[in-house]
Amino acid sequence: MKDAFTGGRHVWHQDYGYWYKNGCLTPDLMTVYMALDPCTKENGCLQVLRGSHKCGRVDHGFVAGQTGIDKERLKHLMDRYEKIYVEMEPGDALFFHCNLVHMADHNRSPKRRWTLLYAYNLRENNPVYKHHHPQYNYLQKIPDSEVKDCENYSDMSGKEFINGSQDKTVKS
Question: 56 — alpha (psi -120 to 50), left (phi > 0) or beta?
């Protein structure tokens, strides 16, 4: 969620750069990036290096406190692969492989840019390390009425959040 004139830059990375450190042994993962607001160059839309997923996993280190591709390797990737600004309208979605090199910039515009990100992993690729993302477990289907009947909107007990001192993909 990047409101007007806010939000930091998310450095160039592959999602598998994170998920590899979280213990996913194979790159059998994908992301769906869905626009809730218009995503434009001006408000820091997603940028991708077209075809970069074919490189396989690139080593990641810490860049500005985030997990990202080192600058020297990134320069070579940018020389080889076309940079695409993924401008989107609300409701548009981009499905991409976990090895696609991508980033999102600061929002320097007067318009917010909110998106939803959905990450998908195979059941067989359950992470071998415990971390802030849930391990695979079977989801039990409940009636739609359960959503409407929910009255607990603020109790966070039993919920897990990223702990920067323990997570291998962020630095506090």
Answer: left
Is residue 90 domain-resident? yes
Range of the domain at 96: 10-122
- Does residue 163 surpass a pLDDT of 90? no
User: What DSSP string describes 4-56?
Assistant: TT--PPEEEE-HHHHHHHTT--S--EEEEEEESS-B-TTTT-EEEETTGGGG-
Confidence bin at 70 (pLDDT 50/70/90): confident
User: What pLDDT, on the 0 to 100 scale, is given for residue 136?
Assistant: 79
Q: Whole-prediction pTM value?
A: 0.80
Query: At a CB cut-off of 8 Å and minimum separation 6, what does 156 contact?
Result: none
Number of domains in the chain: 1
In a domain, 159, yes or no: no
Phi and psi at residue 85, to the nearest 5°: -90, 120
Read off the CATH number of the domain in which 58 is found. 2.60.120.620
